[in-house]
Amino acid sequence: MLRVAVPNKGSLSEAASSMLSEAGYRQRREGRELVMLDPENDVEFFFLRPRDIAVYVGQGTLDVGITGRDLLIDAEVEAEELLPLGFAASTFRFAGPAGEFASVDQLEGRRVATSYDGLVRTYLADQGVKPARIVRLDGAVESSVRLGVADAIADVVETGNTLKAAGMEVFGDPILQSEAVLIGRKGHVMPAIEVLIRRLTGVLVARKYVLMDYDVRKELVEQASALTPGLESPTVSPLRDSEWVAVRSMVPKRETNRVMDELYDLGARAILVSSIHACRI
Ligand SMILES: Nc1ncnc2c1ncn2[C@@H]1O[C@H](COP(=O)(O)OP(=O)(O)OP(=O)(O)O)[C@@H](O)[C@H]1O
Ligand SMILES: O=P(O)(O)OC[C@H]1O[C@H](OP(=O)(O)OP(=O)(O)O)[C@H](O)[C@@H]1O
Ligand SMILES: [Mg+2]
């Protein structure tokens, strides 16, 4: 049986469960279950704190899990990223009181507060910067400078609103671009993991693409196909009117309107767009 760790709380939890549901797995509804069996898929789900998920997967107690890339790196365990999942995107950045810091070098000899001490320690060591101390806090890190326990912070930044409200601003290059990821133990292969990855990839593709159908005059099919190349190649079918063909192709969702406009300008007609519910690529 495949044993999968799923975030039980926080920013990752809801989106992780709905992605697994879309991939055909059973998920808890509103319950507070710690463990849930999905006998139909031969999978057992363990609902855990996202920060702890890398530890369980790294130790091999659980086969795979969903967590944040930042949390995986911070945990410093024998687990690796198997698939980026396209939600809970954020950056991980240094910040300080507005106007006080311009570059990471200025952290030399200063105190840095963070909930991600492993990640920050490694990053600063790689940059050759020696802070006076890394102050490990559980959350609300933005308050630490005002309260006098640190000079600067390193934290998750999504909209930047929390930093702004605390009178702080980011400095230096982003330490990391993070998002939710599926993780597994290095070198651990199992057919059920392959199936999970294929299913999740199917959800990602279904979310990212639409299906586009249109009719176009035969002599324009090459030009039209260039606008809608699809993943491999568009399907071209004959129509009763032999001067025209029907074309079907997958198109990135965010390009839908631009592609429809360009197809129409080219002379394509009956352009129809439908969403994809599931797929295997
Ligand atoms: N706005 C955000 N705030 C915090 N974490 C975020 C945000 N957006 C995405 N994430 C990601 O969520 C993960 C942190 O989840 P975690 O559940 O530990 O903290 P949380 O969402 O801040 O919840 P809480 O602080 O309520 O426990 C990280 O991978 C982080 O990059
Ligand atoms: O850039 P923003 O959109 O403002 O989001 C980032 C903030 O959100 C998270 O805090 P959270 O609400 O989880 O509280 P915590 O710091 O106590 O974990 C994170 O730690 C940042 O403080
Ligand atoms: Mg938080």
User: What is the CA-based Rg, rounded?
Assistant: 24 Å
Query: Can you count the beta strands?
Result: 15
By CATH, the architecture of the largest domain is named 3-Layer(aba) Sandwich
What percentage of the residues does DSSP assign to strands (E)? Answer: 25-35%
CATH class of the largest domain: Alpha Beta
Instruction: Tell me, briefly, the overall form.
Output: globular
* Biggest beta-sheet profile: 6 strands, mixed
What does the average pLDDT come to?
96
CATH superfamily of the largest domain: Periplasmic binding protein-like II
Treating each run of at least 4 consecutive H or I residues as one helix, how many helices? 8
Distance between the termini: 25 Å
Bound molecules: adenosine-5'-triphosphate, 1-O-pyrophosphono-5-O-phosphono-alpha-D-ribofuranose, magnesium ion
Which structural class matches the secondary elements?
Answer: alpha/beta
Quickly count the domains: 3
Q: Might you state the CATH topology name of the largest domain?
A: D-Maltodextrin-Binding Protein, domain 2
How do the strands line up in the largest sheet?
2-3-1-4-11-5
| Series of secondary-structure elements, N-terminal to C-terminal | EHEEHEHEEEHEEHEEHEHEEHE
